[in-house]
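Notebook entry, structure prediction.
Reason for the run: the old model in the group folder had no record of what sequence produced it. Starting over properly, with the input documented here first.
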Amino acid sequence: MSKKGMGSHESASAETTCWVTPKAIPHALGGFDLDPCSFTGHPWPIAKENWCLPAHDGMAKPWHGRVWLNPPYGQECADWLRKLGDHGNGIALVFARTETAMFQKWVFPRASGILFLSGRLFFHYPDGTRANGNAGAPSCLIAYGAANAEILRTCGLAGAYYGPALPTTLS
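New structure, fully documented this time:
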């Protein structure tokens, strides 16, 4: 059976729900202290400390230092972004679903900057091989903290940077 991309309509046939960030992204963003959503056997650990799901519940523990966050992309993604916003120091990689309640509540009013990445990413399988299909949706990097916003602005990854994100109200 062929493996599909994480956002394809046939994603259920992908045989995994664990998608690894392409190496170039964290490499362009510098070092991280903590990855609370890693997994055992990660082909290229991103942070100095990697909490492996499901053995370590990264939502239950206090975070420290500069956090890298590639959260589970289900309904719980909003909870992870809320926690990163509360922590105030890190960068998250999520789908750029700007119309969602998650973006309206936990990204736009709280983020220090957003880099909307060009094109669609090709994530990797847990063994490090690149997925055959792209993610199926656009992705963005969300910075919490001024230093992380500046890193996004200057990192050299292809995309459009917006920041700082300011809260607004619709009339």
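Summary: Residues 1-14 have pLDDT under 50 and may be disordered.
The old model has been moved to the deprecated folder.
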